[in-house]
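Ex. 9. Protein: Iron complex transport system ATP-binding protein.
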Amino acid sequence: MAAEPFLHLNHVNVVRGETPVLHDVNLTIHRGEHIALLGPNGCGKSTLLKTMTCELYPLAQPETEVRIFGRKRWDLTELKKQLGVVSAELPGRPFLQATGFDAILTGFFSSSTLWPNLTVTEEMRERAEKVLIQIDGARLRHKPVGEMSAGQVRRILIGRALAASAGTLLLDEPSNALDLAAQRELRNLMRELAQAGTTLVLITHNIADIIPEIERVLMMRDGRVIADGGKPELLTAERLGELFGTPVRLAESGGFYQAW
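Predicted structure tokens for Iron complex transport system ATP-binding protein:
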């Protein structure tokens, strides 16, 4: 029996300003799945992510349906306890002054720092301690975020997203601005999280970010999902060339893919 869907989209169309961005998207993702959403810049990937997190809403049409964890409506504060979102962007400038441990704690409040009016409970501290171990971030506990490398910051951002979420991570172009060593560390961490049962939805244009544990790939172009299938079917030079509009050469090693 398939696991319960965490996301179900039916005939979803999204307009930003006066510009249609998503066109008739139909998509179901189950809990425990690891999935990559692949496409060129500007294809609508980030808009789809914002639709998943209820930051954007689809056009109200009779056939349109959006269900997240089985529910049609969410209080955003409650939804953030179910979905952790990781991107290359920091929550705000005050975040740079926070230590690694405090930065993880901010995930409980979706804040950029631990403002004086926020109450950190002992339960939150215990959860943050577990997350710090989970992301192998003990050495970053007392280090200010502003003094960390880009790879270390990404590790802390993943911990921040995990702290308050219930095991589902949306990763939006997570390897952007990372050097080769930091990319390798990031992918190793993603593998550990996937193997531990965390649901991963990876949004990327970088083929190398698709870890071996990700078995399902969606391809997007011009605001539409144009393909949905397994890696052997979709991660081919021909299919990638059609997606990105350029000749592609492809190599696979140990479950990882490289394209150039």
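Check your answer against this statement. The chain has a mean pLDDT of 93.
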